[in-house]
Specification:
It is built from five helices and seven strands. With 191 residues, the protein is α+β, with helices and mostly antiparallel strands. The longest helix is centred in the last third of the chain and has 22 residues. The relative contact order is 0.19.
């Protein structure tokens, strides 16, 4: 069976200057675990010949079904505010190759961050999972646009009760009150 190519491009405007966003995403490439909602931890390794802060980073994704990945910087263009990395370890068996290019463009109200993922899927599972993989990757890219976790010392005046209709909105037996109501996402930002 032929390989399936998947190309996904997502853009988001982030309300900070391009140089500040470049500092966060590129100059601190090894620290994605500090600001990305989709990562719980990250560490950088090696000296980059391209000028990046490190050659590789290991990331611990917070998404179910994803395991620790190793990503290598393959293109670094500070003059164009663009970098590309390839995921070299930790990909699911159906993914033969995956790259992600981040481009930072000045906008009147901040920075347009464009993330362009190219994946090469293989085998019958790659063929079957092409559609679901595209949807999941779009969601991940949108969540990676959440640059800063809020600095919170205390929250006051919140009601301790949550009101939920008792009807099935999900066909996933592993869904919890936290995931169905999406409150889990907000709690992860705080803790």
């Amino acid at each position: 069976m032929a390989n399936q190519n998947v190309s996904i491009k997502e853009s988001i405007i982030i309300e900070i200057p391009r140089e500040k966003l470049w500092e966060i995403t590129a100059l601190q490439f090894d620290k994605i675990g500090l600001w990305s909602a989709g990562m719980t931890d990250s560490k950088g390794y090696g000296t980059s010949e391209l000028g990046a802060v490190c050659n590789e980073r290991q990331c611990e994704p917070s998404y179910k079904g994803f395991k620790k990945t190793t990503e290598r910087v393959t293109d670094y263009q500070p003059e164009n505010h663009q970098f590309t990395y390839e995921i070299i370890a930790g990909l699911p068996g159906m993914v033969k190759k995956a790259t992600n290019t981040w481009t930072h463009a000045d906008q009147e109200d901040g920075t347009l961050l464009t993330m362009h993922v190219n994946m090469q899927l293989q085998g019958i599972m790659g063929w079957l999972m092409k559609g679901p993989m595209q949807g999941k990757m779009r969601k991940i890219l949108r969540e990676n646009g959440q640059v800063d976790k809020p600095d919170v010392d205390a929250i006051e005046g919140l009601s301790p009760a949550i009101s939920i209709d008792q009807k099935s909105t999900s066909h996933n037996p592993r869904s919890t009150v936290g995931t169905v109501t999406e409150i889990y996402d907000y709690l992860r930002l705080l803790y």
